[in-house]
Amino acid sequence: MIRLDADAPGFAADFAALVEGRREADGDVARDVAAILRAVREEGDAAVRAFTQRFDGHDPDEMSPRPPAPEAAAPEPQAAAPAPSWRAYEAQARRLVEAQAALLAGR
User: Fold this and answer.
1) Which residue has the higher pLDDT, 57 or 29?
2) Nearest partner of 51 among 35, 29, 28, 27, judged by Cα
3) CB count, 10 Å around CB of 59?
4) Which single residue of 19, 43, 63, 80 has CA 20 to 30 Å from 93?
5) Which residues does 65 contact at the CB level (< 8 Å), separation at least 6?
6) How far is the C-alpha of 13 from the C-alpha of 5, rounded, in Å?
7) Is 81 in contact with 66 (CB distance < 8 Å)?
8) Quick one: which of 54, 21, 25 has its CA closest to 40?
9) Alpha-carbon 95 to chain mean position
10) Residue 102 in contact with residue 94, Cβ under 8 Å?
11) Angstrom distance (rounded) from CA 3 to CA 15
12) What's the confidence (pLDDT) of residue 39?
């Protein structure tokens, strides 16, 4: 990381050098990208393979797609639980009413 102090002697020269250095780097990048695009247009897949080897360190001819993962077996459908009978609801309601009545009676 480069740190510049605006109050330091030589700041203007250091700042100018930093800005100029970036311009040169930007120009280098633009030149390199243009060369890569030109090679891919002209050579097609062969250029892509070469750049993959060069930049990624992989030989695309040795790479193979992974086979698809086997699909998990669908779970067996579960039988629905039997619906509670009307009598079960009635018994639950009765217990609730009795509990509330006991609370109100102060028991």
Assistant:
1) 57
2) 35
3) 10
4) 80
5) none
6) 12
7) no
8) 54
9) 53
10) no
11) 10
12) 92
- Which tokens belong to 84? 């509670």
Alpha-carbon distance of 87 to 41, in angstroms, equals 79
For 8, which DSSP code?
Answer: S
Q: How many other CB atoms are there within 10 angstroms of residue 86's CB atom? A: 8
Residue 63 in tokens: 């790479």
What's the residue count for the chain?
A: 107
pLDDT digit string (tens) for 59-97? 877 766 666 666 666 667 777 777 777 777 788 888 888
Sorted by where each begins, the domain ranges of the chain are 10-63
Question: To which residue do tokens 């009598």 refer?
Answer: 87
